[in-house]
Amino acid sequence: MPDDNVQDLRVAGMFKALQPRRCGGLETDLHEFIDAVAALATGCGASAWVTAVTGAHHWLIGLFERQAQDDVFAANPDALISAVVSSRGKARRTHGGYILNGFWPFCSGSTAADWVMLGGIVQDDDGQPIDEGEFLIPIAELEVKDDWNVASLKATGSNSVVAREVFVPAHRFLSMPRAIEGSNPGMAIHEGSLYHSGVIPVLAIALGPTALGLAEGALADFKARLPGKQVIYTRHEIQMEMPVTHVMVADAATRINAARSILHQAARNIERYAEARELMPLDQRAQVRMDTAYASRLCLEAVQMLYLSSGGSAVALGNPVQRAWLDLHAINLHGLNCLDTAREMYGRIVLGLPQNTDLI
User: Fold this and answer.
1) pLDDT of 156-185, one tens digit each?
2) Closest CA to 311 of 199, 194, 231, 208
3) Quick check: 48 and 209 in contact, CB under 8 A?
């Protein structure tokens, strides 16, 4: 993402939406976050994606110990945090903290980040896992690969990062199992309800607004290009007047509207328990993860319809509908946003079977 984009987003306060107020953030609610990111995505999917995931990371640091939050924001309230939440690394305990090693691909926003949160498993002396969670590290202590050569979300700078024998102080580690079960240091630090929210539900819902905005932008662009457009290999029919166009646009628009409703309903569900200072029940957390993945798939399906009705010009690399179509495929491939994975996870919960993942 160009430096000018990053600076404009800094000035607009977009990265601070979910950042704790005591750390210089806006500490806004999830509904404003959804709407702001979606609006940004109508113009640039990559900028919206980096904004969304950075916002989620700035929310997640609000669950860390006070000292960790101050390490990042006390000297620089505008600091940016990238992350790979999945536990790809391995750590061992040492005096005062941990030694972390690992390789983490898909570190979105790494080119602009000041700090990085990396997921890892803590092992005992025999190599057995005893905990897992997020390690907070200055990016200067990591190697950032230049390996983001992809077809979708190209400008997100989602390079791989490498840690080699990196020391992480104990206060910069957040136990994910304890956080998921409603126990984290941030609850005692912040007055607002935002940091009493379910961990995985917030991380999951942050992936949806970019998909929503991409679909809304693609629909607007399709409509703008439609007046007077003829369909070749016919008797020069006007596409806007063809019934098949009406049906397709209705289906696409309804999917997009449904996705917006689903995301806001999921946000209301998260906030209901957070405001009551209650741990969100497992089935409700599972539903949020399912709903956000489903909303992203609805957006992909909508743009697929628009793309296939856009004619040969849609293969041009500069075509906005094509860019949205490509970016939406990437979003739907994210591990936390994969519909097939979410369906299996949620179906087991609905049927009363043992959960197949702790990340709910």
Assistant:
1) 999 999 999 999 999 999 999 999 999 999
2) 231
3) yes
